[in-house]
């Protein structure tokens, strides 16, 4: 492992429209010059494949309450809001062992490969319906027409959520996404806290409704887990359901929109996929590598963390730059910044994280990606961009808010 050279100052400001448009040159600069970056905003960022992979497997904490006083923590104190809202603080994504071990075991019991594979026919039928509507419209915003409704409906159906105000849920969930990225904006913090409380109440009502209307679904299975002893408290149950709901669609929407955009911007690769439909499985892995739907994972150091010749002090908040690591030329080779659907080791991407928090929904996301992108390409030989992409303004869940296409 080489010791980084910090002689060239790198101005890394991820909060600009230009960064949103294309963050990859900035990630490349970080990797080359400051792979262990201490941001003035009070967080650290690692961006080399080797470092990010090691961090994810290191067993570092994910609990934000361990962050030491500093610009990042003080911003929350000054704003009078909690930096670990109720849902987030209780969801397994934000818990360390032994709570994480207990909750992951319970959720995995309900979220089985059988339950996931059983969704494929429904996914196919939802995709067919969406593509019929797209064919009829001719020009659409692909986010509204496919990338958002597919994963949102799939996770709602899997959970067996009662009919509810979907638009409201979508808005709350989107606001909550701000909580996974470092912010010192008081308005954003307050909005996150309010969304967290409202989502908690809405999902709590859905859980109560399901108690009276049990069925063969994920929510009923999770309620059974709560009823079978004291392994899961009511608040924990609500938090896991809300997390599945949010994680189940906010991420996959970026795979479907970002994956399609990457193909449209690389016509030779789009043609290759059209001519070789069997490539779809590897193509989805390469699309996940090329434009990771989740750009960063978060960790907190409880003691000094040694990386690449640096010492990161205890109580530091670290972003593991999954998207940058997925383009690291020292790991992937000189064509790391290119889309190559036939890349042999594409599956070694870090888009689903790693270590004990490795994505629980990876198998479901892969099916949704294969069916939606595979069918879109198959059915619409004239698929093309029909205007400018609008970005969602998120740092860690960076993706298209609007993707105009013509078929
Ligand atoms: C965790 C990415 C889809 C449920 C994660 C993590 C990443 C990730 C990077 C690890 C976070 C960390 O280490 O801190 C993705 C991507 C997806 C996707 C890129 C789509 C392309 C889904 C879906 C679901 C889901 C569809 C569920 C329906 C979860 C859960 C965790 C998780 C429950 C927490 C696991 C734990 O903490 O043990 N995901 N995800 N994800 N994901 Fe996904």
From TrEMBL:
Coiled coil spans: none
A Pfam cross-reference name: p450
Entry keyword set: Heme, Iron, Metal-binding, Monooxygenase, Oxidoreductase
TM helices/strands, residue ranges: none
PROSITE patterns for this protein: CYTOCHROME_P450 (PS00086)
Family membership: Belongs to the cytochrome P450 family.
Protein name in UniProt: Cytochrome P450
Lineage: Bacteria, Bacillati, Actinomycetota, Actinomycetes, Kitasatosporales
């Amino acid at each position: 492992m080489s010791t980084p050279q910090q002689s060239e100052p790198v101005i890394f400001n991820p909060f600009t429209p230009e960064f949103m448009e294309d963050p990859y040159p900035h990630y490349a600069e970080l990797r080359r010059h400051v792979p262990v970056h201490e941001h003035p905003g009070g967080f650290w960022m690692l961006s080399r494949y080797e470092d990010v992979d090691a961090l994810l497997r290191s067993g570092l904490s994910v609990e934000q309450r361990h962050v030491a006083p500093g610009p990042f923590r003080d911003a929350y104190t000054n704003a009078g809001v909690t930096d670990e809202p109720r849902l987030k603080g209780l969801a397994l994504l934000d818990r360390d062992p032994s709570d994480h071990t207990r909750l992951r075991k319970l959720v995995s019991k309900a979220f089985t490969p059988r339950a996931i594979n059983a969704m494929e026919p429904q996914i196919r039928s939802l995709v067919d319906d969406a593509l019929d509507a797209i064919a009829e419209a001719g020009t659409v915003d692909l986010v509204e027409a496919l990338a958002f409704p597919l994963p949102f409906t799939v996770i709602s159906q899997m959970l067996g959520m009662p009919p509810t105000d979907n638009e409201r849920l979508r808005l709350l969930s989107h606001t909550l996404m701000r909580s996974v990225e470092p912010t010192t904006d008081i308005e954003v913090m307050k909005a996150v806290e309010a969304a967290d409380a409202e989502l908690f109440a809405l999902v709590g009502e859905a859980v109560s409704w399901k108690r009276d209307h049990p069925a063969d679904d994920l929510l009923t299975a999770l309620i059974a887990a709560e009823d079978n002893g004291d392994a899961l408290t009511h608040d924990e149950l609500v938090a896991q359901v809300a997390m599945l709901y949010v994680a189940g669609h906010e991420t996959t929407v970026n795979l479907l929109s970002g994956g399609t955009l990457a193909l449209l911007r690389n016509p030779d690769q789009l043609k290759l996929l059209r001519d070789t439909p069997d490539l779809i499985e590897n193509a989805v892995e390469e699309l996940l590598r090329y434009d990771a739907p989740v750009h960063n994972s978060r960790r907190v150091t409880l003691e000094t963390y040694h990386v690449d010749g640096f010492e990161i002090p205890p109580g530091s908040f670290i972003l593991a730059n999954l998207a940058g690591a997925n383009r690291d030329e020292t790991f992937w080779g000189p064509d790391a910044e290119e889309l190559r659907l036939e890349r042999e080791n594409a599956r070694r991407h870090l888009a689903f994280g790693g270590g004990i928090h490795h994505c629980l929904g990876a198998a479901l996301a892969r099916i949704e990606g294969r069916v939606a992108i595979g069918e879109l390409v198959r059915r619409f030989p004239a698929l093309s961009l029909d205007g400018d992409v609008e970005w969602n303004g998120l740092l860690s869940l960076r993706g298209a808010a609007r993707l105009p296409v013509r078929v």
